[in-house]
Amino acid sequence: MSDSNESKIRNTFRTIDIKDLWKVFLDCVWIMVAAAVTVMLAMFIYIKITYVPMYEATASIYILKTDAEKGVVTSDFQVALVVVDDCTYALKSHAVLDKTIEDLGLDIQYKTLYNRISVSNPKGTRFLKVTALARTVEEAKQIVDSVCENGIERIQIAMDGKQANIFEYGVKNENPANRTRIRYYLIAGAAAAVLVYIVFLVIFLLDDSIRSDEDITNVLGLIVLGDIPNADDVSGEKGGHGHKYKYGGKYGDRSVTGKAPGSSKTPGGPASSGSGASGGSADGRE
Fold it and tell me: Which residues, at least 6 apart from 117, have a Cβ–Cβ distance to it below 8 Å?
């Protein structure tokens, strides 16, 4: 690969290490904290205004397979599992939910009730757990009991036999089912903080200014041989040589003639006191 191509690669890609990541983090840590707190507070206020508590009630149905004529329970477990799938579908059918809406006089549509009913089958069992969601605990219990009763009735008609029994009527849960848990606030706050950090990191990566000796080597491919003392500083600090130039800063009043700042003499005359120049005075005396 030619030197020109290597130079292009150096100018296109900027290397970044752990120190750079840590520096970016320190630069924006308080902004990250402020963003996290702001998002969590906004989320809390929004939920407080729009929150409507919903309550659950859960009933259980036991699915069995019987012979309609002899009344003997079939022990074929695989057949029973197939019946479980059929019953799961039947419990949320139009025939069952529409009758529940009619019996209870609910002012909701089929689709709304469909979304408020959930049916699950615990693994390896022939039980169905039916859960109803409503704005009050009592209404949730009435809905789940009605769905189970109407569902079993429809299943028996469809399958010509006693295929299901209510094992347990609706059990009420007095706590709202849609409470916003504190971990959701923490997740939202953490997401806001990470987003702020990513923005600062992108800004850092897009900034092509040179800040250190390593940047000169990595970006320009040059080796730094030394640092020029700050000609504007005549305080004598750091051994009389003053502070170093900041990368990207100006050289102050020093001109190409070598005239030191604060000196009223032209080159060749005696140097003024307090000069920060090193290597002898302006008249050539060692």
Answer: 91, 92, 97, 130, 131, 132, 133, 143, 144, 147
